[in-house]
Structures are given as C-alpha cells and as structure tokens.
Amino acid sequence: MKVQKKIFCFALLLTLPFFAFSQSYDWEKVEIIEIAQKTFSQSYSAMDEDGNFYTSDNASYAGDLNSWTDGDYQKNNIFIRKYDSEFNLIWTKKIANSIPYKTNTSRPTASIWYDQGLLKVFITIRDSMYVNNQLYKTNCFDDAYCWKKVELQYDKSGNLLNTIWAEGSANFSFETVGDDHFDWYGLNISTPYAGFNIPDTCYLKFKDDSLTTYHYNSFLQKYSKGNDSLLWRIPAISIERLLTDGLGNVYVFETVSRWGWRTIKKIGADGSLIWERKIMATISPSLDLLSLTNAKIAKNGDIITLYKTFYNGNDRSVTLYDGNNYSYLSGLGKENFVIVVYKPNGDKRWARMSKSSGYEGLSGIESDEDANVYFTGYHYHQILDGKDTIVHIDYNNGSEILVISYDSLGNYRWSKSEGGSGKDAGGNIHLDSMGNIIVFGSVGSNPCVFGDIETSFSLGAKMFFAKLKKIPLSVPILENNINLSIYPNPTEGLLYLSFMEEDSYDVSVFNSLGEELIRKRFQGNDLQLDLSTLNAGSYFVVVKNSQNIQASQQVIITSKKK
What we know:
Elements: E1 19-36, E2 39-47, E3 53-61, E4 75-83, E5 89-98, E6 109-115, E7 118-125, E8 128-131, E9 134-137, E10 146-154, E11 160-169, E12 171-177, E13 180-186, E14 204-208, E15 211-215, E16 219-224, E17 229-234, E18 239-244, E19 250-255, E20 262-267, E21 273-281, E22 289-297, E23 303-310, E24 315-321, E25 326-332, E26 335-342, E27 348-353, E28 355-356, E29 360-367, E30 373-379, E31 383-384, E32 390-391, E33 400-406, E34 412-418, E35 425-431, E36 437-443, E37 448-450, E38 453-455, E39 461-475, E40 484-487, E41 494-510, E42 516-530, E43 537-544, E44 550-557
Antiparallel strand pairs: 1-39, 2-3, 3-4, 4-5, 5-8, 6-7, 7-10, 8-9, 10-11, 11-14, 12-13, 13-16, 14-15, 16-17, 18-19, 19-20, 20-21, 21-24, 22-23, 23-26, 24-25, 26-27, 28-31, 29-30, 30-33, 31-32, 33-34, 35-36, 36-39, 37-38, 40-41, 41-42, 41-43, 43-44
C-alpha cells in the first residue's frame, strides 16, 4: 500500500506554547592537565563533599626529577593531586616510584577514592618500589607470583595518617571500610600467567600493627578493626571487586572462569549468603571474553555493574542467570559495553548491551537522586545501545570521549561524544551539588573539541577535567523556516521526514517528559526513523539544520494492528 505524505504547516502551530522539557547539559569548562613529559598508564579521580577533586596518576618521566634513588634512568611515578571545584590545583605530592630491582618491567599502579573524610590510595607493587621514600620489596624469587600492596590514608590537606601493607601470592587484596577491614585471597587455576610459576602453596601475609595472619586457601574474611577480631570467613574464588552498602552487607564480584563467567554475591553482615547472580559471555562464533569494568552502589541502593566483552568476531551475546531464569543480551562488534543494574534484592532492574561495528567501553559510573545513571568511556564507531534505540554519535579517526545517560528504568536519555583525531577517553564521572557533571579522563587529540570549546596543548601525556553544566532544555515554538514534511502521523512505527533543501540535520525524538529517546544526524533530503521500539503515545520530533534553525512537531505512535 502506498503511504500518502502528510504535510504539516508549521505556521498553523504558532499559537502553541513553549515546550518545557527536562534538563540538558552543555560543556561549560575544560581544563587540560599535563601530568608527564612522556607517557602514563592509568589515572583515577575522586570527589569529596565540598566539591574538591583528588587524582592519582601513574606516569613515566624522563630523568630522575628529584628521585628518591640514584641514577638517571626512566622512572615510573605515582603522584596525587588536589583541585578545587573550578579545577585549580591546590597541592600535589609524589608518593611512589619504582626501581629496576628484579626486572625492568615493574610499573606502579594506584587507585584513589574518598571515604568518610579520608583520601585513600591503594598501590600494587611488583618487584620493588619506594613509597614515601621507604623501600618496599617483594620477597619472591625472580619467577615467583607475588606482590606487595599498600594502602595510604591521607587527610584532605594531604597529610599522611596511616600506612597499611600486605604481601601475598596469586590473587589477594584488602580494603578498609570505616571500622571494618576486609581481606581476601583466591587463586583461579584456570587463568595461568605466562612467565610466572604459580607456587603449590600460596600465602597471604597481612600486617596492620599487631595483626598478622597466614592463610593457604581461597577466602574472604572480615575483621573488626577496633580489636582485630575475625568476624567471619567465607570461601571465595578470585575476587575482582568488593562493594559495601553502609548497612553491613558486602557485594562480592568473582571470576569463575577466564572465558567469561562472573558472579555477584550479596553477603550479609554475619557472613551469610543472601543471593547470587551470574553473567556469562557466550562463545559464538569463536572464543568470547567478558571482564568487569566497574561497579557502584547507586543512591537508591541499586547495584550498577559495567562489563566489557571483547573478541575477534562479529555477533555475540551475554547470558544472565538469577538462580531460576536465564535472560539474554545481544551485541555486535569487537568490543561492547554491558550494563546490568540489580535491585538490592537481587532482581534485575534493567540491562543493556551496545552494538557497533568497532570498539566501545564504559568505565566511570555515577547516579543521581532520581536514579538516573551516568557513564563515561570511549568509542571508535557509531553505536546503538542494547535496546536498539538509535544513538548515532559522530566520531573521527581516533577514539572519542563518550558520556551517556539512562533513566531509572534503563531508557536512553542523552549522550555526548567529544574529542578529535587522537585517542581520547573518559575515565571517571562525578556529580556536583548543583547537578553538573564532571568528567575526568585522558586526551590525545590536539586540538580536542568539547562542543563549542576547542583545546590545544603541547606534547606529553595529558589528562582533562570537563564540566557539563546542567541547563533547562526548552524547545521554541515551531518556525516556518524549515520546509519539512513528516508522515504518516499517526504511525505504527516508521516515520518519514522529507526536506525541501539538502542540508545537515540533527533530528531528536523526545517523550512528554522531555527525555531524549532517539538522536540522528544525517546529510541529505530524506530520512526514515524507526520508532517501533517506543511505546504507543505522544512524542515530539525536533529538527535543527546546519544554521541552527529549529522546528518541532508532535507525532502519535499507535498500537500495532493485529
């Protein structure tokens, strides 16, 4: 059946009031930070209750730069820095550097977070390292499989308050949370590491003042820090991450298999298992891998988890298992991000998996009081989210910084893609007290563009802070400046837009709450929009041309005929 075009005359709608939608975000400020003359491997950020930011970076410098050791060889260093809410540097401290003790491949790694008035830096040591001018060495043979790990605790002025360390073989770690202390050891025998001989007898030696323990099996245990008493111990396999909810519960993220099995366990205050959930990458058509990227407890108590799938194939899927039922997500590309949000009772609230022709990943997680969630990461190609909602984002030859938001039910809200022709990526994301979004990450493009803000810099490793200011989004009354026809209206799913003039157009679809559900940029005269994933109801199509002339039209989606 031939579809008859329906022409909408925008001039007839001039009596309509303004459409007042929900908030939008525009880039307000970008600060490029030089952290090294050469390269860096990782960098992290944290924010305190006053809106100050703390960063840790693991950078490679040429020369000694006032090194704690002799010699003029290249050093691997860890610096921590504090910035105010406008990204002005307050103080900086060099806290560690590695030296070629047993091998020349030793590189420091450090993560940073803010917890109850304390700035915590967690450093992993392979071989040897100076930490605050004190030498730490692992007591292993050259081919042994062991580390030292150190937690440094600072106040907000950068004064060192506590140093806690542990040494162990295979997979071990520890974490302090308030007055409680967790440590764990677990060896996944299916994940051998080339170049290391895994010992038959593995160990963990933990030292915190008078507390020293040795263990020879896989476990997670909880201590009361006040009296160093063991509260409980449970079996564990290979723990990737630990989260606490402030109610005494612990969420444990384990690697069950190198090839893709991951589990999430909720452990009660007494060490009892409350629930367990599983996620697996499907091997199709070739070997598939799944890794945990990040996890965070949202302000409403939900558990937000990020994963990445990666392999040399095209189609893949992820399987979720809640103990009774299986559910599936499908993806497309070489690297996909996977988002799974669980309710505190373990029920899946929503899940998404990206689709593209290339690579994308998410790392930073944030949430607001309305249970909207925000992510940052990178992408190389245009992507679709896992609900097949159109989220077309422009990209250049390199990777671009990706910021994306979903509502409390997993509906796509909006996204930003910024950068240039180099390698750029978002790493961490924060919300300040005014609801503005702060993105921290790495930038390699020169110049690097954030909306209307263009930055340039000298050579060397660079990080960035960028603020997305929260701005009310209002769509003006329709103007009769874009000759456009939209048909059919109402529609069962497919909507056609026909323009009299060929141009570059941005087309967005909003619901009645002002949430952007679909965004499309194209060059030409005609566009087909697939709205079949949207529920029946009233929506607004907003169009803007290359001269920023804007028009909008209400469209109705009807239920499909049976």
